[in-house]
Amino acid sequence: MGSLFDIPTRSTKSDDMKLAKKVNSKARQTTATVKGGGSSLTEKIGMIKALVESKLGHLKDNYIIIQEEDVLHDYIGKCIENGVISIDTETTGLDPLQDSIVGICIYTPDNQAAYIPVNHISYVTGIRVDGQLPVEILQKEFQRIVDAGIDVIMFNASFDIRFMKQVGVTLHCTWDCYLGARCLNENEGKGNGGLKALHGKYVLNGKEDVFSFGDLFKGVTFDKIPIKTGYIYAAHDAIITYELYL
Fold first, then answer.
1. Which residues pair with 114 in a beta bridge?
2. In this structure, are residues 133 and 67 in contact, taking their beta carbons and an 8 Å threshold?
3. How far apart are CA 184 and CA 198, in angstroms?
4. Which residue has the higher pLDDT, 3 or 225?
5. What distance in Å separates the CA atoms of residue 224 and residue 120, rounded to the nearest whole number?
6. Distances (CA, A) of 187 to 191, 193, 244
7. Using an 8 Å Cβ cutoff, are 203 and 35 in contact?
8. What pLDDT sits at residue 209?
9. Are the C-beta atoms of 117 and 103 separated by less than 8 Å?
10. Is residue 144 classed exposed, middle or buried when 0-12, 13-18 and 19+ CB atoms within 10 A define those classes?
11. What's the average model confidence in pLDDT over 82-110?
12. Residues 164-168: contacts with CB under 8 Å, at least 24 apart
């Protein structure tokens, strides 16, 4: 029988190192995985980065990221001068009551399409990343669109309008490309009739859009996609919305 006052042997540095290795090994085994897949989130993001770079890397200079107040102010000014803007949003899901807006995509003719990051977070730490404008600035600038009364082009406007309310502005859509497609054919927009599919049908004459690999993001919400990886894919939606409108 052990003594009431038996004291465990003090661990050595060697014992501590063995314990640390065991803990680290277990941590690697329990790395967060993407729902529906076996790869870790880090591996999934790495794959997304690689594919975007290989497929869309040559288009980096075709689109811009707006991360400064003065740049956004100037761009909104150009939209007002042109009298038209197309707007699309990136979100964490489909429910504006539970999900969050992640970014805003905008385009006006004779300018580069732009992506405005709003709520991207680090896929490692879960903390909001730098280089994103505060809601107060977004509200002020997009209210200029409302006050100017210019044409606002959207695809499935009821969706984007509700998410834009999260930045404190209520937009008024002039033309909804989704409803326009339904006017041409009541079955358009159903099933695979999303923005990219309809753009491929009516603008590209049936050709595949190089951006039609959205399934890549399944299992990873867009807020975890690094800004410099996702902006090309996102900004493109604002352009094709406008092209579908034309």
1. 64, 106
2. yes
3. 12
4. 225
5. 6
6. 9, 9, 17
7. no
8. 72
9. yes
10. middle
11. 96
12. 164/87, 164/89, 164/101, 164/104, 165/96, 166/96, 166/100, 166/101, 166/135, 167/101, 167/104, 167/118, 167/135, 167/138, 167/139, 167/142, 168/135, 168/136, 168/138, 168/139, 168/143
Q: What is the mean pLDDT of residues 136-163?
A: 97
What is the share, in percent, of the chain residues with pLDDT greater than 70? 80
- C-alpha angle 55-111-217 in degrees, rounded to nearest 5: 30
Question: Which residue shows structure tokens 């949003």?
Answer: 89
- Lookup: tokens for 30: 């329990």
Provide the token pair at 187. Answer: 């079955």
CA–CA separation, 92 and 117 (whole Å): 13
pLDDT surpasses 70 at 56: yes
Using the structure block, give the residue that is written with the tokens 């995985």: 33
Total residues belonging to the chain: 246
- Per-residue pLDDT, 210: 66
Structure tokens at 107: 């385009």
Contact call for residues 185 and 119 (beta carbons, < 8 A): no
Question: Which CA distances in Å does 133 have to 10, 119, 147, 179, 184?
Answer: 53, 9, 21, 32, 39
